[in-house]
Amino acid sequence: MSAPRGIDHLVIAVNDLAAARDRYARLGFCTTPLGKHPWGTGNHLVQFPKNFIELLGVISPDKLDSMNGEHFSFGVHNQQFLRRREGMSMLVLSTEDARADADEWRARDLQVYEPYHWSRKAILPDGSETTVAFTLTFVTNPLMPEIAFFTCQQHNPEAFWKPEYQVHTNGAMAVCGVTLVDEAPARHGAFFASLVGSTEIDQASDGVIVHCAGGVIRVLSPQGFAARYPGAKSDYAAEGAVFRAASIEAADLDQVARCLEDNAIAYSRSGVSIQVAQIHGCGVVLEFVPSQA
Q: 190-196: long-range contacts at Cβ-Cβ below 8 A with a sequence spacing of 24 or more?
């Protein structure tokens, strides 16, 4: 690819979709009506102009398909993730050609599954229905067995992106970063560089940062994570690298603070960010940062 891929969306797996939607509403996010997948999961989206957060739950376990070496099961992956905890189960990258991504990633020796095409009904802001369609190409990494990655090609984007869903009381504008934690973060730099198609990598004693279009992917040591997110809990064991935090661009941090205070949400603030604990973010620390626009 000529340019690095960007963050398309975050999948945050939750046990109770209605409760998760309420939590994000209290944080000042507008959410979309319930969407249903043919393989047994459902979602509410927090949409921004160029990317989004997907709150995802398993709503029809009897519809889950099987996972094998050729086919990645989105539903089974998230069901297995939720047996451990709520939180960010997948990172999704933007693309214009998911099938070309599969070829590129295979050439880079990544663990790639056959692209998967699907469609579903979506409810528009006026209450009418439309159809949205996608092609997905999944990647996994044995060093991160709890999480997964994919690109998402949209075939009817004008039916998906709706400005009415992108106005948030907290002034949020975009997902601009994710943070993973691992005991040996440097070992993941080459994988993420191959995944996003980036050669811009920052190495530090406490982690590695891979730059993608419009954002960053950080892999930090537990010590580095504790230093950046001092209020976050780190009391669970994980197998390999796992997602622990997401960075959200906001128009005005004072606006974020007022929104949180109006809804009695505790937060911590430094000069450059506002952080909300994972209990409010459904297993993910949410870090609001000033917009670079």
A: 191/110, 191/141, 191/143, 192/217, 192/219, 194/105, 194/108, 194/110, 195/5, 195/93, 195/105, 195/110, 195/139, 195/149, 196/4, 196/5, 196/93
Q: What is the pLDDT of residues 97-145, one digit of tens each?
A: 999 999 999 999 999 999 999 888 888 888 888 888 999 999 999 999 9
Say whether both 198 and 120 belong to one domain: no
pLDDT, position 287: 98
The CATH number of whichever domain residue 26 belongs to comes to 3.10.180.10
Q: Which domain holds residue 153?
A: 7-165
Confirm whether 270 is domain-assigned.
Answer: yes
The whole-number pLDDT of residue 228 equals 93
Choose one of 126, 141, 165: the last residue of a domain: 165
Q: Which band of pLDDT confidence, cut at 50, 70 and 90, is reported for residue 256?
A: very high
Total tally of structural domains belonging to the chain: 2
108 HSE (CA, 13 A, CB side): 20
Please write the tens of the pLDDT for every residue from 33-42.
999 998 999 9
Residue 2 in domain: no
Same domain, 244 and 105: no
Same domain (yes/no): 139, 41: yes
| Co-location of 36 and 156 in the same domain | yes
What is the pTM (predicted TM-score) of this model? 0.95
